[in-house]
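Why do we care about 3D structure at all? Because function follows from shape, and shape follows, mostly, from sequence. That is the central idea of this module. The next example makes it concrete: a single protein chain, its amino acid sequence, and then its structure expressed as tokens.
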Amino acid sequence: MILCLRTRVCVPPPVFATIREYALLFWANRGNHNETTAQKFLPSFTFEQLQDAALKAQAAGAFASPSGDLAPLPDAGAVKNEVAALRQAIFDPAFEPTTLAREDRRIPERVREQRGALDAREQREG
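And the structure:
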């Protein structure tokens, strides 16, 4: 049994469910590290399953248009290259297992600059 989406992309339901679960976690945490603990979370699908799903999506018309600052992926080779470029970041537990100073990413640059200027002034005066 396989699941076919509206775009005729056919992915086995267990694989689709794990990719969807990871995507939702990624979105909710603004990346592949837990927002609270900063620990990296790994997908329960394999690299090959992700690549297969991406290739099927591309064959059904996905990735044909630019998205944000990302160029279109016009053929299977481009899709394979894109997924391969993500392999270490997504699947390697030793690659960036934690993030540092997660809360600083939520502080606008202007606020960090002001904080730095205040710290420098306090050091000069203190």
